[in-house]
């Protein structure tokens, strides 16, 4: 009986590839995991656990920062490639994504983008270091049904909180995510809703609350169909 590899097996494969600076092997492992376990599991149980393992080894001196850069670069490449082959949006409602004004790291934001698009959601992703004023410019143009602000740099959390507050003041539902919002102080001063679960859970919450499925195709009653068929015969 065939047994699919566990997520931890893929994490080990990725770690081996990182040690040898083999980005193609990292991407191949993610492709295989996606085909075997699905996109949601690949993101939540392989991509981010692998990043945490490599980060821990870097902190302890077992790996170099170059290894961490190889991994994050390979994963960014893979997410972009995976996003490029997804079908066009099918649901109503656009979600606006942005990193905090001083946040450079966007892999988690891009992964959320990928999971939303895989659910048929239209996404506008402003990426790294989005100023508050620019976020509001996009807000007025896109008219999103919800906004997500992501910040993973606690030392620059205050500007990200200002982004969340600006969206809330504009009357648009806003969510925040990332380690910058882990402190109770910033949570109490952020009017939005925290996304504390997995990326799969976050994508499901946003999709169900702020987008709607496409309308069902209209079906002619059988008698009308027969009449139209007879008339055209």
From TrEMBL:
Gene3D superfamilies membership: Cobalamin-binding domain, Methionine synthase domain
Mention any Pfam family matching this sequence: B12-binding_2
The record's InterPro entries line, in alphabetical order, gives: Cbl-bd_cap, Cobalamin-bd, Cobalamin-bd_sf, Meth_synthase_dom
Source superkingdom: Bacteria
User: Per the record, which residues fall in region Disordered?
Assistant: 207-233
* SUPFAM superfamilies registered for this protein in UniProt: Cobalamin (vitamin B12)-binding domain (SSF52242)
What is the recorded name of this protein? B12 binding domain-containing protein
Q: Which organism is it from?
A: Microlunatus sagamiharensis
């Amino acid at each position: 009986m065939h047994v699919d590899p566990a997520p931890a097996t893929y994490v080990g494969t990725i770690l081996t590839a990182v040690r040898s600076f083999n980005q193609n092997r990292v991407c191949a492992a993610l492709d295989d995991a996606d085909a075997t376990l699905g996109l949601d599991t690949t993101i939540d149980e392989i991509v981010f656990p692998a990043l945490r393992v490599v980060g821990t080894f870097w902190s302890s001196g077992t790996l170099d920062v170059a290894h961490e850069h190889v991994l994050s670069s390979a994963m960014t490449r893979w997410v972009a490639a995976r996003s490029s082959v997804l079908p066009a949006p099918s649901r109503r409602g656009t979600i606006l994504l942005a990193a905090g004004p001083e946040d450079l790291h966007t892999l988690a934001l891009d992964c959320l983008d990928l999971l939303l698009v895989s659910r048929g959601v239209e996404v506008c992703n402003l990426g790294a270091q989005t100023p508050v004023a620019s976020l509001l410019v996009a807000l007025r143009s896109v008219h999103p049904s919800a906004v997500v602000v992501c910040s993973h740099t606690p030392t620059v959390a205050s500007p990200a909180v200002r982004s969340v507050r600006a969206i809330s003041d504009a009357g648009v539902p806003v969510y925040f995510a990332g380690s910058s919002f882990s402190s109770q102080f910033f949570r109490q001063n952020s009017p939005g809703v925290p996304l504390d679960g997995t990326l799969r859970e976050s994508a499901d919450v946003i999709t169900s609350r702020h987008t709607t499925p496409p309308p069902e195709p209209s079906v002619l009653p059988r008698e009308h169909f027969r009449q139209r068929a007879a008339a055209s015969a």
